[in-house]
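Cross-posting from the modeling subforum.

Setting up a comparison between two proteins and wanted a second pair of eyes on the formatting. Protein 1 (sequence, then structure tokens):
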Amino acid sequence: MSEELKKCPFCGGEADLMTDELGDSNSGTVMCMSCFAVSNTHDNWRDAILAWNPRTEPKPPSADVQEALDALLDMANRLQLLDGAYSWDIEVETIKTALERMGAE
């Protein structure tokens, strides 16, 4: 088991283990020294580290959400190229369809 603390999951700052140095327990809490995020207090300082260190990977968007995002990005890119008249009706229908698909998930 690694007892090295990972950086803060909120701001990326350095974290420090706070232990009960004056008492007779092995309790511990982890605190970020930058944003002062703090973990719960655990009866064992090793458990405090184990609770602080896990990280989850962000979940990728579903195929429908990714398709909607790609459509919106494509529209934004096309809007940048236009100079003058533009038909919004087609784009509005495309956005409505994409949003309806996202809401169905």
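Protein 2 (same layout):
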Amino acid sequence: MSEHTHLSQVHGLRGELRESEPMARHLSWRAGGAARRAYLPADLDDLALFLRELPADEPVCFIGLGSNTLVRDGGYAGTVVLMHAPARRPILSEFPAASAVPWR
């Protein structure tokens, strides 16, 4: 069974898993190669479930709005988690440690 098949069959995942996702669609410069896999989580719980199911040695990169981000033409040989939709952005107050972390 391939990793993609494994991840696409994880019970409870509600986000969208894409193979060979062109990163140019998600970057302000509209340039760059494809990520081996991209995941658009439905919410924070969905993201946590997805990350638990990834192989421990899987390279992971989180992309927000894609500003000031470049992906080489050869792409990214790992998983990109796309966090640009408001429903996917974690609310820092939901994390107990966030209140104890100095801003500057």
